[in-house]
Amino acid sequence: MTHRSTRRTVLLATGAATLAIGCSKYGDEDDSGSSPSVNASGGQELAKTSDIPVGGGRIFKDEKVVVTQPEKGEFKAFSAVCTHQGCTVSAVADGTINCPCHGSRFKVADGSVAKGPAPKPLAEQQIKVEGNSINLA
Ligand code: FES
Predict the structure, then answer these.
(1) Which CATH number fits domain 45-136: 1.10.443.10, 2.102.10.10, 3.20.20.70, 3.40.50.300?
(2) Measured in angstroms, how far is the CA atom of residue 10 from the centroid of ligand 1?
(3) Where is the signal peptide, in residue numbers (predicted)?
(4) What is the distance between the alpha carbons of residues 45 and 39, in angstroms, rounded to a whole number?
(5) Position 16 pLDDT exceeds 80
(6) Is the dihedral angle over the CA atoms 69, 121, 99, 114 positive or is it negative?
(7) How far apart are CA 58 and CA 60, in angstroms?
(8) What is the pTM of this model?
(9) 104 Cβ closer than 6 Å to some ligand 1 atom
(10) Above 80 in pLDDT, residue 23?
(11) Sign of the CA dihedral running 116, 86, 135, 25
């Protein structure tokens, strides 16, 4: 009995030390964020990396965010609000993010305008990729 308790305590202590090391790494890399622990808890997960097609993307209407994967393993996110008159973009196809209202198209790689009348690129959004999870930053 006493031996089991001791072992469990040692395991818990080791786990806590590992977590502490992980947390300090995140803190060092991202000292601009005010509450990085929110994302670490998984509360803001948008999608799994496997949900985003390579060379394409996926629109999250509720969050008004488009997540793209221009190259394998490279993820980007942009506002889903068209810079022309504010419609929500509706499709990602053939390398562009498309607005249904007046036909504007934006490149999946950087959100820049591929076809007007939109005057400006889609605004870039911050995301964090942790393992196979994509989170809003
Ligand atoms: S609102 Fe998107 S093209 Fe006009």
Answers:
(1) 2.102.10.10
(2) 60
(3) none
(4) 8
(5) no
(6) negative
(7) 7
(8) 0.69
(9) yes
(10) no
(11) positive
Q: Is 102 in the pocket of ligand 1 (CB under 6 A)?
A: yes
Structure-block tokens of residue 132: 């196979």
Per-residue tokens: 133: 């999870």
Summarised one tens digit per residue, pLDDT across range 66-122 is 999 999 999 999 999 999 999 999 999 999 999 999 999 999 999 999 999 999 999
6 φ/ψ sector (left φ>0, alpha ψ -120 to 50, else beta): alpha
Residue written as tokens 């995301």?
A: 127
Measure 105 CA to ligand 1 centroid, in angstroms: 9
- Joined together, the tokens standing for residue 81 give 């609000």
